[in-house]
C-alpha cells in the first residue's frame, strides 16, 4: 500500500516537471505524443519504485489466517464477525471479546468483567481455537463494527 502511494506521488510530481515548449503550434498528434511520453516516464518511475522495494518487505499481515478465515481466531485482531462460525459466540460473547482486548494470552478472556457462567462455558468450548497474537493497528481499529451499520 505504501509503495502504491509512493508510486502515485512520483507519477503526480513528474507531471509538474515541465516539458520544453514545442517550436511549432500544438496539434492533436503532438498532444498525443506528449501524453504517451508522460505515461511512459510515469510507468518507468513506478516500476523503479516497486523494483527498489527490499525483497524482505512485509506485504501482508503474517496473522492473516487468524482473522476468521482459518480454524483458529486471533482474539486481539479478529473482528466480531470472525466468531460467526462458532455457535453461541456471536454476537454477545464475541462483542465482549473484541471490546475488552488486547489480551496477553488466551486465558485473559476469562477475566472480562460481566461474563456469565454460560458465556464462560462457551469460551471454554472454543478455547482451543483461539490464539493471542500481538495487536496490529491495521486490524484493531475495525474489530467491533466491521461493515455492520445499524
Automatic annotation (TrEMBL):
One of its GO terms (cellular component) is photosystem II. The keyword Thylakoid applies. PROSITE patterns: TAT. It comes from the Eukaryota. InterPro entries: PSII_PsbU, TAT_signal. GO terms for biological process: photosynthesis; photosystem II stabilization. The keyword Transmembrane helix applies. Its main location: membrane. Belongs to the PsbU family. The chain crosses the membrane at residues 38-58. Residues 1-15 form the signal peptide. Keywords: Membrane, Signal, Thylakoid, Transmembrane, Transmembrane helix. It is found in: Membrane. NCBIfam families: PRK02515.1. It is a peripheral membrane protein. Gene3D superfamilies: Photosystem II 12 kDa extrinsic protein. This is Photosystem II 12 kDa extrinsic protein.
Amino acid at each position: 500500500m505504501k509503495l502504491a502511494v509512493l508510486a502515485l506521488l512520483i507519477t503526480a510530481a513528474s507531471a509538474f516537471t515541465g516539458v520544453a515548449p514545442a517550436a511549432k503550434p500544438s496539434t492533436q498528434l503532438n498532444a498525443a505524443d506528449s501524453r504517451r511520453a508522460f505515461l511512459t516516464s510515469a510507468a518507468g518511475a513506478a516500476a523503479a519504485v516497486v523494483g527498489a522495494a527490499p525483497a524482505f518487505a512485509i506485504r501482508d499481515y503474517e496473522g492473516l489466517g487468524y482473522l476468521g478465515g482459518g480454524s483458529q481466531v486471533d482474539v486481539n485482531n479478529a473482528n466480531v464477525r470472525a466468531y460467526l462460525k462458532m455457535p453461541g459466540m456471536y454476537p454477545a460473547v464475541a462483542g465482549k471479546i473484541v471490546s475488552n482486548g488486547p489480551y496477553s494470552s488466551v486465558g485473559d478472556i476469562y477475566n472480562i468483567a460481566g461474563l456469565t457462567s454460560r458465556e464462560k462455558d462457551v469460551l471454554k468450548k472454543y478455547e482451543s481455537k483461539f490464539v493471542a497474537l500481538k495487536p496490529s493497528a491495521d486490524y484493531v481499529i475495525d474489530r467491533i463494527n466491521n461493515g455492520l451499520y445499524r
